[in-house]
Amino acid sequence: MSDKADSRLALRLDPRTKIILLVVFGICACFCRDAAWGSVLFALALLFSCITGEARLAVKFLVGYVAVLVFVTLAVTVNPEIGTRIALIFQSFRAAFPPFLMAAILIMTTKTGDLVAALYAFRVPRLLVIPLAVGIRFFPTLVEEFRCVVDAARLQGVSFSPAGVVRHPSTICESLIVPTVLRSAKIAEELAAAAVTRGIEKPGERTSFNELALSRADIALLLCFSAACVAVSVACSIAKGGWA
To answer: Could you give the 3-state DSSP secondary structure of residue 15?
Structure first.
């Protein structure tokens, strides 16, 4: 990892800080479901992402968020009846952007071992920790393998354009789906072997190579963003008349 990447604040934060903020944003997103207050909450998530050095990730999520808002607005303008139904469907998807962004930051900037140690610190049962840790390792590896399969298929002259999929669906299935499924089984076996080697089945209390410790930055970010999220949720409830 380069020095530039090591300088990101998100890599130095305690995993427990990111987990708590993920839960806070997720709970607050349930209260801020309208576009106005939901956008304010999403702006807080973007601010956290920029402060911790994940500005590129923030830009990607911002583009997706704006695209959803524009699509819903156009749908309501063109056909109010159908557009209103579409808006209701996309409302939950739009409201989930803040916790999704926090989850992406957590996964991309936290080592699996540190995340497992943080979950054990929160007394999360092992039955939940182990599948979560394996899943976090499995899916990124599967994405890389899928890209390799696609590149290999293109070298063999397989076209993944819409026209190519319609004309030769069996070729697409043979060149893409079958190798991916086989690689998925192989990846699962390798991860299982690695987990057993590291003593995942060992009973008793587990230890971590890296000790967890809350720094001043952790405490400051945790207090500031938690207070801001709660304030936005309270303001949204008052605006709707729920706290009158």
So the answer is: helix
CA dist., res. 167 & res. 161, Å (int): 10
- Whether residue 150 contacts residue 179, with contact meaning beta carbons closer than 8 Å, is answered with no
Which of 73, 92, 89 lies closest to 30, judged by CA? 92
Tell me what pLDDT residue 198 has.
66
- In this structure, are 243 and 145 located in the same domain? no
Does residue 62 belong to any structural domain of this protein? Answer: yes
Write out pLDDT tens, residues 195-239: 667 666 666 666 666 778 888 999 999 999 999 999 999 998 888
Both 97 and 178 in one domain: the answer is no
Burial of 37 (0-12, 13-18, 19+ CB in 10 A): buried
In terms of residue numbers, what domain contains 136? 125-209
Task: Judge if 215 and 193 occupy the same domain.
Answer: no
Tell me, yes or no, whether 116 lies in a domain: no
Residues 85 and 71 in one domain: yes
pTM above 0.90, yes or no: no
Q: How far is 115 from 132, CA to CA, in rounded Å?
A: 10
3-state class (DSSP) for residue 222: helix
Q: How many domains does the chain have?
A: 2
Q: What is the pLDDT of residues 166-177, one digit of tens each?
A: 777 777 777 778
